[in-house]
Amino acid sequence: MLDFDKVAAVAQSHSPQELIAALVWQRRFNEFDGQEVITDLAQYPELWKSFLFTKPVYAPDKDGLSFNGILETLLAMANYRPMPETSILHFIPYPADTLYVLTENQDVLVAQLMDLGKKWRADVVDVCDGSDLEEEEDWEFRDYVALRLRRGLWGETFGDKQDAVVISFWWD
Hints:
Layout (H helix, E strand, L loop, with lengths): L3 H10 L2 H11 L1 E2 L2 E2 H10 L6 E5 L10 H15 L18 E7 L2 H13 L4 E5 L10 H11 L3 E2 L6 E2 L1 E7 L2
Antiparallel strand pairs: 1-2, 3-4, 4-8, 5-8, 6-7
Helix pairs in contact: 2-3
């Protein structure tokens, strides 16, 4: 059940990025520590443009694996119940395990984010600029991603654009 007044207050006082950061902050599992990740991202804002925390996205998704992750997230949120600390039963409020970070396509920035992935103990860290999507039958998707990331970030001055990459961090 949604508390309309609470939702309205949060929506008016927080950006979408802050809402995602709050979801990351809440999560702690295996080697993942959401508070550590958000602390580092807040400390180094020059490294990233935006980030999203979700279930893994497989593209193209011939087997429906991405939809399965979305379905798992929707079910977990629907079935969530706050429990006292003393309870042996605890629900995961937001079952994400993959952090996607959008950054400028600059070697220095990418290398620093890769280093953060090691610090955060991510099981897999990948960089996607579109050209690394290998399957021959996926050339349309590969070209779309590469085209969308090319000059996809707006610069400080009007008309100034930079190339982007997406770095994914996955925890098992």
